[in-house]
Structures are given as C-alpha cells and as structure tokens.
C-alpha cells in the first residue's frame, strides 16, 4: 500500500512539473514586450531609411553605438555604455 501511494504521488508530482513547464513555454508575450518591439521596429526603419537616402555613406555600427550611448546617457551619471574598445 505504501508503494502504491508513493508511486501515485511520484507520478502526480512529475505530471504537475511538466504541466507547469509547458505552460511557461506557451505563455504569450506581455504588452510591454510588444510595445518595445514596435519601437525597435521604428528604430530599424529609420536606420534603413538613413542608409538608403543619406548623401554620405553611413557606418551602422557607429550609429547604433551612438544611439545606445545617448539612451544610457540620459539615465543617471553612474550608468554608462562601454564599447568593446573602451
């Protein structure tokens, strides 16, 4: 009888752990993630527009690093972004 109870509880706990993990895998992204994605999409479109229409040749890496530095610069004096070279 003790073995049956043990096996029953064992399989129930295994089932519950799989049910919890599968729920996490299927969970939909929240609204904040969607808003962030839309903003990043806008950033990407502007970058693409500049690449195609700016009179001089642009270096995407420099533009993106400058955008990140500008974003971080406006937070507080202790938060900084360092490039690989820095």
Task: Catalogue the unreliable spans.
Answer: none
**Relative helix content:** over 70%
Count helical runs.
3
* Spatial gap, N to C terminus: 67 Å
Overall radius of gyration:
25 Å
**Mean pLDDT, nearest integer?**
75
Give the class from helix and strand content and strand pairing. mainly alpha
Number of strands: 0
The helix/strand series, from N terminus to C terminus, equals: HHH
- DSSP strand (E) fraction? under 5%
Major sheet description: none
Shape: extended
Tell me what you see in this structure.
The protein has 86 residues and is mainly α. It has a domain of 54 residues. It has three helices and no strands. The longest helix has 25 residues. It is extended, with a radius of gyration of 25 Å. The termini are far apart. The mean pLDDT is 75.
Quick recap of the structure?
It is built from three helices and no strands.
Features:
86 residues, mainly alpha, 3 helices, 72% helix, extended
Write the layout of secondary structure elements.
Elements: H1 2-26, H2 31-53, H3 60-73
